[in-house]
Amino acid sequence: MKSKTLGIAFGGGGLRGYMHLGIIRALEENNITADLVTGSSAGSIATTFYASGKSYAEIENIITEFSEFDVMDFVLSPNGIVNGQNLAEWINANVLQEKLSQMTMPIGITATNMTTLESVLIIDGDPGEAVQTSSTIPGAFVPVEHDHHLLVDGGILNVVPVHYAKSMGAKVIIAVDIYCANQPQSEIKSLSMQLATFRLLACRHSEQEINSADIVIRPDYEPEGNGLFSSKQDAIDAGYQAMLTQIPKLKALLK
User: Fold this and answer.
1) Which of 26, 43, 73, 99 is deepest in the core (most CB within 10 A)?
2) Could you tell me the pTM of the whole model?
């Protein structure tokens, strides 16, 4: 029987977030349930669905019907080209809880406050707005305004929010890194170089935090290019296999 508080920190990484589903599947098949979860950026989506109490099959059904274009509400704005409200509405349409504090377990979603220049943790309020905020990629999405503060992507300062999981009471922490482990060599094209530079900086900043987890899951998968995924299932399978290899260690840590 599990005797230690288990926390999962789901990391950011854009559409690589499908790998989080494989993590959830492997844990469920081994009758292991987290006691609390944290998430950054794309990881905030997995965090919210998981904390809402949905089974893997329920989450898979939602994701199977999901198209990336469903949440791309393009706008003509100097602040960004995607509003982000569609993402918030999609989340709220697929979870029963109206507040994060009503979830089946404690949940923390990260954001970056560009007014105070610090990381913040969202533990209550509207689930969709929290996910929208944490997933607001600077320059692409319109920043979220809250109490006269501008909030953007939580993965800027916390690619995988391990420290927040610890502060919330986790004694054993799984860090799910879908972003930093498989960095390919950058192309010389301007956009590719910019994205690679941002990725390098964010990952180097978060390296010590990620490695402080008891178990670090790094699925062996990287999509080709920066476009949409060609196969959600390949990403899910990669997360599943990566988690399976760590199940014996996890069970030992939880005893």
Assistant:
1) 43
2) 0.93
